[in-house]
Amino acid sequence: MMSTLSRSILASGLLVLAAATPARAQDDAAAAWTRIHEVFSHPRCANCHVPADNRPRWSGANYGATPRVHGMNVNGDESRIGARTMMCGTCHAKTNSPVPHGPPGAEVWVLAPLPMQWWDRTSTQICEQIKDSKRNGGRTLERVIEHVDRDNLVAWGWSPGPGREPAPRTKDALVADLRLWVKLGAPCPKP
Ligand code: HEC
Ligand code: HEC
């Protein structure tokens, strides 16, 4: 027979365990989001997810210490492909230029739609944006993950051409972090 004392020690131990599990899951979810945000805010991604001035960014080690807007007065305008002035495809081909500082390329080279702005946004704002189907292209989080897994502009982030540092870790690691974060309730950091 178990004594009352050992029974209550056992019970309090179980209570501690029960309380510890959700806290640990919260930590895991927060750590996964931190890694996801490191990628989303990286120059290879944020240079295209730009604000209402519609100007792609040149930022990252390849472009010097100070982030700046795209050279040559390039402006994507509301079309986000430069329809009013010079189309992105005038210089950006389907593959990367093999020459350092030559234009990078992918199947279709175009700015992300304005509601998907990440440039100058906080981690919390980016997190809330990708969860908001009104601003993320009408996607469920499952569809957001699918986009990350299959889109060729996302994939370009890990093969950006000579001289450009790739996005952190690997695309598969990003997909795994997104799956974990969604499984744990997709919490956003407090503002
Ligand atoms: C006149 C040619 C030209 C046009 C037009 C042009 N680009 Fe570029 N773009 C370049 C070149 C060249 C580079 C690479 C510069 C370097 O590596 O120093 C570049 C780099 C970029 C980068 C940086 C990628 C990175 O993270 O390293 C982005 C983003 C970009 N362009 C987007 C666009 C978009 C979107 C359009 C259309 C609205 C566009 N560009 C139109 C020539 C052009
Ligand atoms: C050349 C420009 C360009 C680059 C570089 C780029 N994106 Fe995008 N991104 C887009 C466009 C365009 C869309 C809209 C596509 C759509 O809705 O079908 C988009 C949409 C997305 C979405 C859809 C959901 C949302 O709300 O944002 C995700 C997620 C995303 N990009 C992730 C990334 C990641 C991660 C990287 C870097 C590894 C990256 N993108 C680099 C242009 C770019």
Q: What are the SSEs and their pairings?
A:
Layout: H1 4-40, H2 43-46, E1 57-58, E2 68-69, H3 123-131, H4 141-150, H5 152-156, H6 171-183
Antiparallel strand pairs: 1-2
Helix pairs in contact: 1-6, 4-6
One heme C is lined by residues 43-44, 47-48, 56, 58, 60, 62, 70, 72, 74, 76, 81-82, 86, 88, 90-92, 101-104, 110-111, 160, 164.
Compose a concise summary of this entry.
The protein has 191 residues and is mainly α.
Keyphrases for this structure?
two-stranded antiparallel ribbon, mainly alpha, binds heme C, 191 residues
Q: What do these coordinates show?
A:
By secondary structure, the protein is mostly helical. The chain has one domain (29-183). The chain contains six helices and two strands. The protein starts with a helix and ends in an 8-residue tail after the last helix. Bound molecules: heme C (HEC) (2 copies). One heme C (HEC) binds at residues 39-40, 44-45, 48-49, 109-110, 112-113, 116, 129-130, 136-137, 144, 147-148, 153-154, 156-157, 167.
